Amino acid sequence: MSNTILGLDKDKYKTILIKGGLFVLTIIATTLSGAELMFGRSFVYGDTLGWSEFAQGVSYAFPFLLFLTVHELGHYITARYYKVKVSLPTYIPMWLGFLTPLSIGTMGAFIKIQSLIKSKKEHFDIGIAGPLAGFVIAIFVLLYGFTHLPEPSYVFEIHPEFESFGADYAEEVYSMDTVLYKKDFTSTERYNYAYSADSIIHSTEFPSIRVGKNLLFLFFENYIVKDKDQYKIPNGYELMHYPWLFAGFLALLFTALNLLPIGQLDGGHVLYGLFGEKWHRQISEIAFVCFVFYAGLGVVSPYQEINDILI
């Protein structure tokens, strides 16, 4: 009996089939999540989305998966350059629309080093190649997003209840200190409560994510977006509905997290390449304790000024 299928070893054929299947599932999952984020509605409950909205979810899935793929290829190509045996990328689909209306469609991707890395230089180069390659893609994704901003009325198509407030809707809608969500409210009660003096909520059942400013966003907003288009820049609470901008934001976020000098993160590999095994372990443990301690202090909180997530 032949041990090959289509000229490939059976084990290799099985591996490619599994990885290819996971990649396809990740495309579907990110497209589902992208559509839900764009339209502020679910595929499962309420005013459900359909095939036309699903197709539009590609405008989020494409840039986000492009970032993930180029990131992993940065590691893969650099490893192959140093003749280090390495696996093809494995994608992890994660659409949670049946549990929560808010998911990004994937838990990322990874490659597996399958042979010995011979030097600290190789550790450093392989570790840093992914974040650098992904960062370049993130820049181009944001460049496209900020140079193709829709009219502000785009938000009113998603939140028609905001239209009565006009262009300055954010000052009215997101100006309160407390955000509450009452599932047992009727539509009328929810709307009235949303704009009462006590609280502010969306009149829909879909949560929002507030995205804060960062240096790159400020750069694009101030130097790339033309003066005549400044009014198109979205409010932080509505950025999730702008697929290219939100994909770019996630790309920056995951690149930053991945560069933390901890364990098997890319930052951990870079740290190992810089200082070797002994110092890598010590610095990594200190960094981990410091991050956990700082997080436990509660210095940064979504409730400092206004809530970062409407639930």
Can you give keywords for this protein?
311 residues, 6% strand, mainly alpha, two-stranded antiparallel sheet, disordered C terminus
Walk me through the topology.
Elements: E1 4-5, E2 8-9, H1 10-39, H2 51-56, H3 58-81, E3 90-94, E4 105-110, H4 120-147, H5 153-158, H6 169-173, H7 187-194, E5 208-209, H8 215-224, H9 243-258, H10 266-297, E6 309-310
Antiparallel strand pairs: 1-2, 3-4, 5-6
Helix pairs in contact: 1-3, 3-4, 3-9, 4-8, 4-9, 4-10
Account of the protein in words:
By secondary structure, this protein is mainly alpha-helical. The protein is 53% helix and 6% strand. The protein has helices spanning 10-39, 51-56, 58-81, 120-147, 153-158, 169-173, 187-194, 215-224, 243-258, 266-297, and strands spanning 4-5, 8-9, 90-94, 105-110, 208-209, 309-310. A hairpin with a 2-residue loop joins strand 1 (4-5) and strand 2 (8-9). Helix 3 (58-81) packs antiparallel against helix 4 and helix 4 (120-147) packs across helix 8. It starts with a strand and ends with a strand.
Strand content: 5-15%
- The shape is globular
Proportion in helices: 40-55%
Oligomer: single chain
Mean pLDDT: 83
Strand order of the largest sheet: 1-2
Rg calculated over all Cα atoms: 22 Å
Largest sheet: 2 strands, antiparallel
Let me know the number of strands.
6
Please provide the ordered H/E string of secondary-structure elements: EEHHHEEHHHHEHHHE
Which segments are poorly predicted (pLDDT under 50) over 5 or more consecutive residues?
176-187, 193-204, 302-311
Helix/strand-derived category reads mainly alpha
Helices, by number, come to 10
First-residue to last-residue Cα separation: 59 Å
